[in-house]
Amino acid sequence: MFPPRQVVFGRAAVGRKKKSDSTQPSSLPSISSDTLDLDEAWLASIRKKLVAWYAEAHRVLPWRADRDPYRVLVSEMMLVQTTVTAVVPYFERFLARFPTVEALAQADEADVLKAWEGLGYYRRARQLHGAARAIVDLHKGKFPDDAEAVRALPGVGRYIAGAILSFAFDQPAAIVEANTQRVLSRWLAWGEDLKTSRSQARLWEAAERLVPPKGAGTFNQAFMELGALICTPRTPMCLVCPVTAECQARAQGIQDQLPVMPPKLSPLAVTEACALVVRDGHVLIVQREPGGLWANFWEFPTIHVDGADPGGRQFDRPVGLKQGVELLTGVRVEVGASVQTIRYSVTKHRVELEAFRARGLTAELRPGPRLSDARWVRPEALADYTLGSASRKLSQWTVQHWEQLVRDPAKA
Ligand code: SF4
Known about the structure:
By secondary structure, this protein is α+β, with helices and mostly antiparallel strands.
């Protein structure tokens, strides 16, 4: 698929070799980067050194306690776009709440989202829930161990399938994810934009050659661990790397310039406003309808003000917060001062959400566009509802300032 080329791959694209690093190997390997992973000696050397290093250096993580495929699935779904440190407490709580695939399959989606609350990427939680239901419905609760059936589970792409098949069933399935693609790009001195389909095909090809026929699970974990601990995005620690002699980027002195990533796009700005509407000792919350961003989540009544509209909050005409709350809930309100501005990122957007005090002048509820429910709740009950991170912060503010809010909900 990728015939050998005359030029050592990557050098032209990533610049010249550094002059000053006396720790650089004195000579380049005798084979081209293009054919490196066809060399059996190179493959054997990497496998042996990596696995030996991993036996000594690996982190003890809760999902490594056994080879249960359900635990592998939960951990890998959580680890997408999230750090190991952030995931550990979520993983432990989630497994305590849903210890088996059957327990997760039987759970209500609201309970699953609640257990996931704060991790972000809630689509993943829904996919995980769907995968558990598929395993129970289609495989009688027995986790499938063939690639086609694993790939057919909701949310399971090529990488997560490789993790499940190799970690849990020790099948020689390859893995290319954030850590391993960085490591591979350096081993091969791959100097092209990593996100192109050509680059991805080349890295998968190399990963498939690297994964050993036996011990694939340990090898893949070692591969990922090297990227997490040693071959880090910035300033890879080549001096303590177990496979420095096998690494083309290191041989060429270009490890700091790889991988080549596409330029980051600026996030799209979004401005929204919400109201903390208080009446008779209760605060008003609404639930988003199924489908779309924030499906089934609860929040304070929120309107779009400016910029992009990822939440689909626009009405057919511009409205202020007072009118927007009435359209969303049927409640007439008097709006007071701004109390807090929350900034957060979601998908490719940067959202600025300004929250205002408000007094409810009427009580009757009539959920409006894109909402499935609206409720008056006691502030202490907010903890029982599934809220996004911004709404959770505002709910905490509401509880802390409850006495002030009740005294004068629409204070200017
Ligand atoms: S030698 Fe350096 S660049 Fe190469 S794999 Fe090791 S840490 Fe990464």
